[in-house]
Amino acid sequence: MKEFMLGCNYWASNAGTEMWREWDKNVVEEDLKRLSEYGVTHARVFPNWRDFQPIIPIMTSGNNIIEYRLKDEALEHNPYYLSEEMLDRFDVFCDLCDKYNIKLIVGLITGWMSGRTFVPEFLAGRDLFCDTTALILQQKFIAGFVRRFKNRSCICAWDLGNECNCLTRAKSREIAQNWTSIISNAIRANDHTRPVISGMHGLGMENECWTLQDQGFYTDMVTTHPYPYWVEHCSKDYFLDYRTMMHATSQTKLYSDISGRPCLVEEIGTMSPTICNDQCGALFLRANLYSAYINGSEGLLWWCANEQSNLTTVPYTTNMCEVELGMFFEDGTPKPLMKEFCEFADFLNTTKLELPKAQEDAVCILTQEQDQWGVAYMSFCLARQIDVNLRFAYADDGIPDADVYMLPSINGIHVMPAENYKKLQEKVKNGARLYISNDDGFLSGFKALTGVEIVDGNFKNTQGEITLDGEKIEFTRRRNALLQSVGADTVAKDQNGDIAISSFKLGAGEVVYVNFPLERMLLDKNRAFDDNKHKVYEYFFKKELAGKKVVSKNPKVSVTTHVGEDKTYIAVMSYSKNKEKTELEFNGCRADEIFIGNLDELEPFSAVIFSIK
Known about the structure:
The protein is α/β, with parallel strands linked by helices. It has three domains: 5-351, TIM Barrel (Alpha-Beta Barrel); 362-546, Class I glutamine amidotransferase (GATase) domain (Rossmann fold, 3-Layer(aba) Sandwich); 550-612, Golgi alpha-mannosidase II (Immunoglobulin-like, Sandwich). The chain has 16 helices and 29 strands. The strands form eight sheets. The chain has an eight-stranded parallel sheet. A seven-stranded mixed sheet has the order 14-13-15-16-21-20-19. A four-stranded antiparallel sheet has the order 23-24-29-27, covered by helices on one side. Helix 4 packs parallel to helix 5 (173-190), helix 6 (212-218) packs across helix 8 and helix 9 runs parallel beside helix 10. The chain starts with a strand and ends with a strand.
């Protein structure tokens, strides 16, 4: 059975980032014992680069370096420049993790942590991605550390390091790729039996030094660090509102799809009591545990294990958002969120259920010159309100085979390469269905593709309204285009009688065109998912919804279908802070075995998972 990695990021409660210098076995053991008792099975840990490789140069006249040594150590041969004292302490740490059945993800190049750097003094100020000495020392660090600990059974994965894209500023994508390749290959050269995890955050698709595609190429697993406070577009609503609750799942699905690798929610948390209280934090964790599990994440790790408000070193004396992030209070008593950890761990241990991957209903193609993360986020949120599950693709990377495609909120003059655009049109002509919504995007052969032509237009921020299936839906846009049909059917008109949504038969397929940027317009809107914007998606996905075995009529409840070799499972997840009726409709089937939850009503941010006959 594939194990869901349930745990936290760990620094010792007595010392935080200074734990290896201020090593206290008794404190560490008490920490690990407590974590284990509350259901933690995995910990991400950090051999602080500054402490484990305290290298100094030995100089001669003219500042020429004649050799390197360990700071304050003798001349004995040490080809890796690693501190034996620190390595011995990590050995003891592994013994304790074995004792309490905690598996480790080890962040190897930990030179960045909690807003400050921890690099060997000798390397301070250097370009750590390009400087040849820095690159050699990083490879030596990895060789010495991995060879020393690769036989420890508690280590389940090697992480490149903590958010290494923050170590220094990469000057180009090629530099970022080269560094990732060097570090990944150094790990695999010394241990090819464990996965290499990215450990990065804040990745993009285009015009970025650090991309999802590159991390997927060089590593075995990508990672999200989905703190709503830090990630763009995620804090428009309250912490427990639908938009915020969908953040981690949306981003993790996006990262996995674009990189082509499994994805781990490697860090997540509320950041501070300034954001929300402990009860709110507990509900936040509950929602993200069940959502991560249902939607295919490799696991979820909280940031972090222990409170750090009593520590007297940087970053804790300079960065107030780093000190109250623990799973336990300073006296060791559990915060409310630990009840959620225990209950979720009990669910995993009791059911032994491994959900197959959720079925996907459409490929959502993200295009050039748009806010890809923002558009993907809003598209995913809308789709989940009607029980549609999207697969993400990037237009430059090709057009995957599918029956249904989306081009949400296209923008700019490029959109996608001509070769891929032609392939997409051919797939529609051969029977696929295509949704397009337009922000300010250009499409060649527009009339032939959509069955409408743009008569005239202007740039002006406007508000409008359509009526769709008897419901009034408001919209905003910054570019107005007046359309007339050249073969398309009008689905909905705006308040002025102009075409707002059209449908066009193209060969054996269909193109639905939305004359406003449904997804992009929601980015700046508070409580964007409280009304009926999802009705546009409901119209487009009528065929897919009619074919589903189970759907919910409640937009705050999301249904996914998981088809296994011998059973089909249905997972119903509530993204509401209130009790919600599931409002399930069954199509030619009935519920069989229920693994968790109630078929009729869900507690806040809870789930019901069952098989069907």
